[in-house]
Specification:
Undecaprenyl pyrophosphate synthetase; globular; 6 strands; 244 residues; alpha/beta; 8 helices
Length: 244
């Protein structure tokens, strides 16, 4: 079925506000097609473009994609360098189209290990979109859920010691306010491609009550239709949040 017809099947009052995607399978896609791993990553970028476009059409408020994890530094230097360049080049290439589609884009994650010039260019490029009021697209870059929590706890501790903030016990609200995703809604739906069924250190605080949707499809082959079907499945779930 054409994805536009599927979009019409969505209950607009039950669109997941925040969708997080673990984009898995670029390497396996390359192996399957007997080509270089970098070509798998190139195809993965094409998948990002079509899913962002579809999220805009469906009325999703927040979309967070797992682009580069803190663990990815363990890959070969060649692949890491290529991935960092591909992510930057894709951002610069797509920023005008993102702005045209009213997308507000931010990179979330640790600034450690990344060159300051890289971080600066990311910031300057993303800033061009920050007045946009449509889809909020978060690119999780050099991101790790445990690292995010450690950073938050250390900032809380520093503020408590300085007396500049905090008075009383630490609450869930306070912790959330110190995360990379401060001010954003918690994740409603986590999608993971390629057949793996684990969170892999991704948004572990924000996904505490998220619904999960797994598919065997490799990320470069992930279609608009399958993305909409994940949302349709989400709308059939009964979310009790432990209350009954």
């Amino acid at each position: 079925m054409n994805y536009k017809k599927l979009i019409n099947e969505l209950d607009k009052s039950k669109i997941p506000r925040h969708i997080a995607i673990i984009m898995d399978g670029n390497g396996r896609w390359a192996k399957k097609h007997k080509t270089k791993r970098i070509n798998g990553h190139k195809e993965g970028v094409k998948a990002v473009r079509r899913i962002v476009e579809t999220a805009v059409e469906a009325g999703v408020e927040y979309l967070t994609i797992y682009a580069f994890s803190t663990e990815n530094w363990g890959r070969t230097k060649t692949e890491v360098s290529y991935l960092l360049k591909l992510i930057m080049d894709s951002l610069v290439k797509e920023i005008d189209e993102l702005i045209k589609n009213n997308v507000n884009i931010r990179f979330i994650g640790s600034r450690e290990k990344l060159d300051e010039s890289y971080n600066k260019r990311v910031m300057e490029t993303c800033k061009k979109s920050w007045k946009n009021t449509g889809l909020h697209l978060n690119v999780a870059m050099n991101y790790g859920g445990r690292k995010e929590l450690l950073d938050a706890f250390n900032e809380i501790l520093a503020d408590a010691r300085s007396g500049s903030k905090l008075d009383g016990e630490i609450t869930e609200k306070i912790v959330s306010d110190y995360l990379y995703t401060a001010g954003m809604p918690e994740v409603d739906l986590v999608i993971r491609t390629s057949g793996e069924e684990r969170l892999s250190n991704f948004l572990i605080w924000q996904s505490a009550y998220a619904e999960f949707w797994f598919t065997q499809t490799l990320w470069p082959d992930f279609s608009r239709e399958e993305f909409i079907r994940a949302m349709l499945d989400f709308q059939q779930r009964k979310r009790r949040f432990g209350t009954r």
